[in-house]
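[Automated response] Your request has been received and processed.

Submitted sequence:
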Amino acid sequence: MGLSALSTLRLNQDREIPMLGIGTYQMSGPDARKSVGTALRDGYRLVDTAQAYKNEHEVGLGIGESGIPREELFVTTKLSVANQDKARVQSSFEESLKKLGTGYIDLFLIHWPVLDKWQECWKVMEELPADQCRAIGVSNFTIDHLKELAEISAVVPAVDQVEFHPFLLQAELQAYCQDQKVVLEAYSPLMHGHRLDHAVLQEVAKAQSRSVPQILIRWGLQHGVVEIPKSTKAERIRENLNVFDFELSTTEMGRLDGLHEDLHFAWDPRTLKL
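Generated structure:
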């Protein structure tokens, strides 16, 4: 797969999403502002935040200070669990847009499938002004959630953002999403720093003369998944972007795929019912 820092995937809602972006989970204040600005100046074009992260204002400042034209960027935020009420969807979206100060939001996601609430929220999201909300999608949705969504709405989510890494190779979900033309996006691709010392990861990294995080990011990209690694350290932000001048072999991809053990380092939407 020929990939570059400018590689994108086509969304079903007539948009292109960059395949590599910066995540901002647990970033706050100056760290969020500085990290986003650094990432964009270094070449990232996708920024991912959320209402629940409570950093949309700082992320917006980083975007504004980067000097990158707005039309070159792709900005994602998410409807929080706390705002999953049909009466709060539009006002919370407007608040996010105001905090970000980006003029429009490229992608607005339901952050978590809250029982008996997300369905009505989706209906409201469908009606958000197209000039302010370019595409809508979901996060942490299983195949069952996506099938239920298909039963209540003709609007197919542009993206399903889920935890995805070698220890959680969600092959069935990815196949279903591909069939439905839903782009799969990986959060926690670096596994919150866990298992980075695993022998297979270390061996592949050594063979490629790369860091383990670079191997993990490249693995996801070669699976055709959007990757949003997070770091507040400038050198790590740059390192995470430097994954386009090498390629994992079929054997290496197979070894990494073989690490799958259905292991969530974050939250499992099959068992955590909100």
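Summary generated for your ticket: Residues 29-42 form the longest helix (14 residues). The chain has a mean pLDDT of 96.
If you did not submit this request, please reply to this message.
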